[in-house]
Protein 1
Amino acid sequence: MRYLTLLLFLGLHISSITAQSSTYAISFDNAVHHEAHISATFNEIVEDTLSLRMSRTSPGRYALHEFAKNVYNLKAFDSKGDALPISKNNPYEWLVPKHDGTVKITYTLYANRADGTYSQIDETHAHLNIPATFMYAPSLSTRKITVDFKTRDDLNWKIATQLPLIKNNTYSAPNLQYFMDSPTELSNHKLREFNVDGQTIKLALHDPCTEEEASTYFEKVKKVVLAEKEVFGELPTFDYGSYTFIACYVPNASGDGMEHRNSTILTSTRTLSNGGMDRNIGTVSHEFFHSWNVERIRPKSLEPFNFEEANMSGELWFAEGFTSYYTNLILCRAGLITPEKYVEGLTGTFNYVWNSPARQFFNPIEMSYQAPFVDAATSVDPVNRENTFISYYSYGSVLGLALDLQLRNEGLNLDDFMKLVWSTYGKTEKPYTIENLNELLNTYAGKTFGNNFFNSFVYKSEMPQYNELFKTVGISMSQNAEIAYFGAAVSITDDLNGKIGSNTKIGSPAYLAGLDKDDIITSINGKSFPNGIQFNTFINEGFKPEDTLSITFLRDGMERKTEVILTSEPNYAINLVEKNDKAPSKKVLKARQAWLKVE
């Protein structure tokens, strides 16, 4: 986000908070029942009726989340303490008339989900996503904000936030945009930090680990930070000289990661001693990369962030997808995973995108437009995402991979292109458009190269020649034509029937046979399923491509029959050529080493 008053704010002494500010206080006496008590004061109000709202979405999210549903016991008072009337104009707005220029409110918040979108309050922590926690006055959005976090000293809570400290437990924000972008964790967390080029990188780690485990994990975090700095050539200039990883690895959390301007939220049910030491670091890599790509290299479509409506952007294939491409690549370059593990890890994402029928409906830009429907969004009506949607994270990731390898064939590379994007749009904080990215690639790699990439793979949904690109860095793609493919996700039930758990994929054998989600397969070729075997194993071991299966199934309680003609498994295996007992040439090995930054 861009904060137009931020430089002015930084030039002021922290004691110069004026009367024209919004002040909040939050306490947690009833944390055991997931409640917070919140008060706020809004003064020097010029409008006759003050509008107060809860946000409907959150920075880094694109769907609606309707945080107002967890607010109750709202009361309003004027400067003398007299009660004021409150009316509702819509589900997420409250109107307070008849004030005397000051409105003081109190309310109760219920919060019990710890991730990057919501808040959770219990006796282990107060995990606060600001839009999910604090009511705000839209007409006062440019005013400074102060907030007093009343910690539970009996629980040894400390405060981790990107908000600058005023004194004691009171923090400030220059305006509403920055405040809403500043998640805060109150807990008995461990703190680690190190200095990079005059800036401080912090890890606030809420995890029941030992001090030694915390230090071991922080060494991994440091390696990620330094490897990503190499991509762009420098760290961003963090607004208050520091960046904070707020990591909450506890069983009562929900897995997530959410980027913010000078911090990130990292949540997982995996503690460091329960698999998190290795498995949580990928989120660190992804979210810190966002401090360049999306926080400062910012799509114009997300400026300014709208707290009242869903936020749609056609650039998410780049903002989220290219960040996803670098996520594991950085882990490889940092020595946290092996080149073999990195390359084999490409397989799932590649096959998901390559084999998806959704590309016939939407290109990467249009997939990005779907974010308000899929980004932690919820609905009760069935959808056909299996056939119509490819995650912009995954789609953009495989495009980033292709662009990097294509550029390397030209003696260029994606790192240097990202540096150019950074210097042009990120460091200057000038929001970009898709057309800007196209023009910048033309500048970097030539007009023919840039236009070909965008016209083929961004404005259209064609796929690059991955087989040829992989050969340049000693990677093999292979299919096994002997493995049979059915084309449905089938689980074996307790009564040895097979239930189709999702929409069958367009063009697959099951789809062409008319099978659909929730169909119950009762027999194949007149026989029931054997006990103790998974469906895919049953198909792979018992049948071959081009075999015809006579299927009996139940739909809505009625028995039906159909025939499925099996085909060959469409997925590819992706490996280093050495796994197939082939030695890469010196030229190919050199290209791989330059790409992965390994010897």
Protein 2
Amino acid sequence: MDKLKMHSPNLTEANIAKLAELFPSCVTEARDEQGRVKQAIDFDQLRQELSEHIVEGPQERYHLNWPGKREALLAANAPIAKTLRPCREESVDFDNTKNLFIEGDNLEALKLLQETYLGKVKMIYIDPPYNTGNDFVYKDDFSTSSEGYFLSSNQVDEVKGRLVANPESNGRRHSDWLSMMYGRIRLSRNLLRDDGLIFISIDDNELANLIKICDEIFGEENLVANFVWEKRTNRENRKVVSSRHDYLVCYCKNIHHGGRVLKQLPMSEKALANYKNPDNDPRGPWKSDPATAQAGHGTKSQFYTFVAPNGTKHELESGRCWLYTEEVMKKAAEEGRLWFGKEGSGVPRIKTYLNEKERGLTPESIWFARDAATNEQAKNYLKKLFDGKSVFDTPKPIDLIEIALRVSTDEDDLVLDFFGGSATTAHAVMRLNKSDAGRRRFIVVQLDEPCLESSDAFKNGYETVSEIALDRIKRAAKDLSDDLVDNQGIDFGVRILKIGPSNMKDVYYNPDILVQDSLKGMVDNVRDNSLPEDLLFQVLLDWGVDLSLPISRQEVDGKTIFLVDGAEKHMALAACFDLDIDEAFVKQLAEYEPLRVVFRDAGFASDSVKINVEQIFAQKSPNTDVKVI
């Protein structure tokens, strides 16, 4: 029984709790005047969270620090002026699929997805560089000078985030890796639902550092498990110790969200084999479980001599108590819910029935190769999928990711992988959907990282890793759908989007640089080479509309209109980027009664048409939000 507090609420602690929810990285430990260690706010870190510039002034405290941490935070928070451009011809079932593949820098991708998918992703899986000294990390640009604002915020068309080698001889090897991961994991946390989870594959090189930055970003109470995965079964004799395992570090967004953090796994054949019915119990198959528990957890009513229906007396073993009180045990015996062995005189055991409630297997901390497969099996499978060609050296097994999906997602959930690699996550999502008729959808992000000319992938015709990933998604979809009729509702498509410079001119972001004369009348803010569908996706991003919604086109009075998530009325968005828009056309578009409508600022036939647009929609579709670009 809890004691009464007998004092007014501690508002400081309440405020710290509120800040901890908004900014988990700002909570640390400090000693009070009595020398007690308590939660405290790292005000330097909080100032950095709320600043567009690097804040100086570190002080002694318990936290993880490294050269470049502040710059990484600044880079994560800095705005960018980029967009996602649709690639219809390369996509599969572009207009209807819910699956997205984004080609480009994953830091930029995570920034672009912030508004649209804030709090909507159920599960994130990533397989980042392990920092073994032989792989690559992203070298982000941290320049923040005011003169170079457009450059540093990627508002001009220059690539500033690129992969660089990170050898063991690099004195900043750990710092560079931490800086790369820190901002990306921070941004990804924003996308998770309150009950969402992230799984991160890693090995011993950066395990400790990964857990420390995740403790800071998610809060250490949200560490679900550090799963051990048996990645190989054969011994490596060339090393001092044969490394047989890697890890999957798992954090949740909010351990207190109110539900079960991880789902149970489906019953295996071995587990189901334990359920039998030797006594023809009408309640169906059952297995027997101990009727006793540890004595330390028992109450006085759980210590007694139990007398079975046949008169046999059963004494407790030392250190044990009965699972139930004597009254409950007697009732269970009368109802045939206890098992006394074939002869009827054995130690009583509780019958656990297969059909009485939903049964599953609680995930264990070790994922064995027999269930999750090995690296070698993953590589051999991928080679088989690509007609015997070797295209990717370090793919993760589909079985491994499928286990993570099974314990973390339901049939309609959204899954994100922003270190896409060979697109194993996309493959696993489609395969699991086929298995349980699910409608999970994926967002996979992969940099157009060049394949080395000496690599098997390059020799087999692949210039970038993203090409391998996309080809795998298409091959996997074909392989999985071959034995289905009309795909049976499974989404095997993929909508491809590529990160590129904004469709808007630089002046759109900084109109003060225009002379006042140029502001008279309607100004065309759109770059000359921007296509209408490019503009549509930039609008979807700016408005926070789901990028996977179905899109249709219609011709009205010779002009093209895009209708998102509907083709008759009340669609999510209607857009027309053509020129010479007159009032008659606006009235026809208003008949669709879209939730949102957008036009090109310079697209109206006259100033009067532009002025009257909102009035026209107010009369015909008063709930429509009208904007121009």
Protein 3
Amino acid sequence: MNLEFQPFAPDVVQIGGEIRRRMDLTAEKILHHLDVENVFVRHFRHRSETPEVPGGFTGYGMFLDAVVKAAIHRIGGDEMNRFKTERLAELIATQSPDGAITVFSGVPGYWDNHDQAYMIQAFVQDHRYCGNENALQAALKLGNFLVNRGTAVTLGLETAFLMLSEESGDSRFSDYCRDVFKLDQSINAYDRMTPVNGVAHVYTWIARCLAQLQYMKLTGNDTALLREGTQELYRRVFSDYSSISGSCSGGFFWGELWDDTQIGLGKWGETCASAYLLRCTAKYLEFDADPRLGDLYERVMYNAFFGAQSEDGLRQRYFIPFNEPGEWYEHETYCCPNNLRRMMFELSDAIYFKTPDGIAVNLYTDSALTIPNAVIHQKTDYPESETVEFTISARKVFTLTLRIPGWCKHAVVQGKSVSAGWFNMEIPEGETHITLQLPMEVRQIRGNMAQAGRIALLRGPLVYAVEMERNQLSGHAMDLLTIDNTKPFSVTPKGIETTCLIPNQDHLERKVLFTRFSCEKRTRTYFPAVLTGTVVNDSLFHPQL
């Protein structure tokens, strides 16, 4: 479709509900549970030829970008704002006369410009929203250092240069993206420049497509060639390359590559890929507001992305496999912990969008949008609840656009049945109350590839899985578990309760509770079932199977 969305400034949205709770957990860890001095800062104060960080990459630029975004979105309050100001200032104080900010005392490390890319992004954001002139000058010095040394392309650097060019008005950085990074060329040009990762690597591909969308927005150069990579990206995403949880990437050894086997074990579903898929999907809505993009966003967010963070917010996963728990990542440096933090503080930016004649609601969560001509309040316990209540105060007439998810077959707005997709309604001046009902039946989703012959359970955007501990199941019993879908499912506050069969046990039948995929102790998602008649294809990833 041709409908295009535009983002609102981050300071016009107030957020509550589950998204806000996750943001607060992330901020709490940053402020009170991380030894930032020893984990990050000391390496910049005391440079070394071989810094004591995994792979020579701290991820501190990513970390600071997350901190800036938290402060911009008013998460963590005054404490986060002070923390941001102090940490940016102390990092800028380590900048060399040539502009470098680095942990290396000699030759730059392989990932040095990767870390510096996100420092630039943090500095630019702080200038754009907080007016920090010192941050912009540090970003320009660092950008000039990278250009002067003829830096090669790396993850995040294209976006950093485009942001710096836009913020400073210096076109040299966007020209560098065009002339050296070949950003205006096909995705194949990128593949030739980055043989280590290239387009076989999911996170790399998504970052490149995001940068091309940003380049199109900055230059107005919207061409079929520039859209080519993004269109192929989403062709893959809406197919066997995505798991039921919304995550992408796999591979037995590396775990970060395109993989359509649907094995879902080990190094499957890199957190960085999930974070960047969310970010790129929100950006793509600005060019083509396909409602499936909103469906994708909430599937990834509520399952793969939230599932990569422990329920107390203190741990995170590098990979989030869907048929075993996955391991907690032991470091706070490197990419995944810090990409999770960065993306966490962007989630509220994808709730509301400007449309040519009004406002679109893409995500349902407790929140408020306040702009000069309208205030929209959402009240809901979605995705657990089926009901969303809107209270709208308008100074002039506008069109409200609601995303009706593809999984919902019987949505109701103000007592009227509506179809999946974008639903438009005219909002008059004054105060209006709207009730949206999104009935959530338990869906039995057909597995494919390695999961052929098995099913997964979904309700609304949520994927459900079995916790061994909670159900007092041994590994042997898990291997034999079969869902008896001849019996009704029971939705409870704790999850979905169903009858399962476990052959060779004292009691063949037993009740098993399936809990949300994002629960940190969940194990397996797919199981064989007794009947196939009520099993359906995944409306998001495999509608044509």
